[in-house]
Amino acid sequence: MLSSSATPQRKCMKPTSPVRDWAALPQDVLSTIFLKLGPSEIMLGAEHVCTAWRRVALEEPALWPRIGEQLGRCVGIEAEMAMERVALTCAAGQCEAFRGCLHSKDLAYLVQRAPSLKSLDIKRFSNYEGTGQLIVALENLLLLENLQIHFTYSVKRDVEILQSVCQACPSLKKLVLIFAVKNEIEANSPSVGLLISLYSS
Prior knowledge:
The protein has about 200 residues and is an alpha/beta fold. The protein has helices at about 25-35, 40-45, 50-60, 75-90, 105-115, 130-140, 160-170, 180-185; strands spanning about 65, 95-100, 120-125, 145-150, 175-180, 195-200. The chain has two domains: about 25-95; about 95-200, 3-Layer(aba) Sandwich (Rossmann fold).
């Protein structure tokens, strides 16, 4: 007679959960999820999941009110700038806050794609010859309230640039201009050189 210890034990099988079709989620649900993710997670992950998710990411302007705040943590400068251009296109004019690196050649594109911009933070502006183009671009951002620019070159006539910026942006509530100094250029350091900060109520 077989002992009870030799009797095979029946395993309790848990019922398997039904497979979910994540691609079939309603667009409003996906939009809510994507808003919580933010731009970098959308561009580096969510939009590559499936065609349905990519369609929402590229065709829903409300997902892109703020661009560039997290992209720099994930990729290099050139890739970051390319992603920011794509994000500006997706925003379809609804972007209100932009933070990123810009060349003078990018300014016209920014103005065209984000005419309702209220906050602009240029982390690196490195074209001295493009300073005039910068002022022209700022004149066309009529709703701009907050502006910060980090110039990667030293400027002898920084007061004149400050005046030009203030004239170009009469609705500013906060202005920060950061200029490189000689030691910063030689050391290629990201440290702040000369800081000019203007606040108005």
